[in-house]
Amino acid sequence: MEEILGAVFVIALVAHLLLLGVAAWRVLRGENAVDRLLSVELVSVLALCVVLLTTLITGQSIYVDVALGLAALSFIGTLALAKYLADQRMF
Amino acid sequence: MTVVVQLLILILVLIGTSFSILGVLGLIRLPDVYARLHAAGKVGVFGATLLAAAVALSAPSTASKALILVALLVIAGPVVSHALASAANRLGIPVKHALRDDLAKARRQLSSAQPNPPPDSPC
Predict the structure, then answer these.
(1) How confident is the model at residue B119 (pLDDT cuts 50, 70, 90)?
(2) Are B86 and A49 inside 8 Å of each other by CB?
């Protein structure tokens, strides 16, 4: 049962890394600014998934703090950029 | 860990990964920004949340932090999607195959109120 679990975790990790590549390619090739910003937010969420999968694979539970910080900070960054895009000024 | 918990973790990871795959597939295939927001929002809320639940099950010592992460993701996901959608709307990005546009009147009032009109070409 253990090796099945490990295999599934590695497969999921590889899948998420491929998705990360696709989302990063979308960041470069987005048609307009909001589309690119959306892809940046998706890259940060997929990076969060990769961090969570590393906690499952390695078993060290220190990575959950990394995921927590990443989730909180990427959320604030995307919000600030969305507001900047909407109003053309930051504050 | 009993076999039941391991099976549950397996199912959670598989469903989370399928949500992520469908989300990114939607990001590529869907016609315009607003539809893509639906797809990307699902990855954040469902994909990462199920993975965090799997982490909570596999390492009970960090269950509290994983649950805080789940709460943060469930709250932050829709807020970011809404902010992006309103930014796209204020930039005047058209909705493809739009049946009706409720915000057109609001946008006209907004543009008439503002001295300089918002940039019409989506940057």
Answers:
(1) low
(2) no
Cα of A33 to nearest chain B Cα, Å:
6
| pTM (two decimals) | 0.86
Packed helices B3-29 and B33-42: angle between N→C axes, nearest 10 degrees: 170
Look up the ipTM and state it: 0.88
Under a CB-based contact definition with an 8 Å cutoff, are residues B4 and B58 in contact?
A: no
Name the average pLDDT for chain B. Answer: 84
Q: Is the pLDDT of residue B27 over 60?
A: yes
Residue B81's closest CA among B26, B121, B16, B14? B26
Mutate to test the interface with A, among B8, B55, B70 (most CBs of A within 10 A): B55
Q: Which of B43, B67, B74 to mutate to test the interface with A (most CBs of A within 10 A)?
A: B43
**Which residues in chain B are closer than 8 Å to A7, comparing Cβ atoms?**
none
Distance CA A41, CA B61 (A): 29
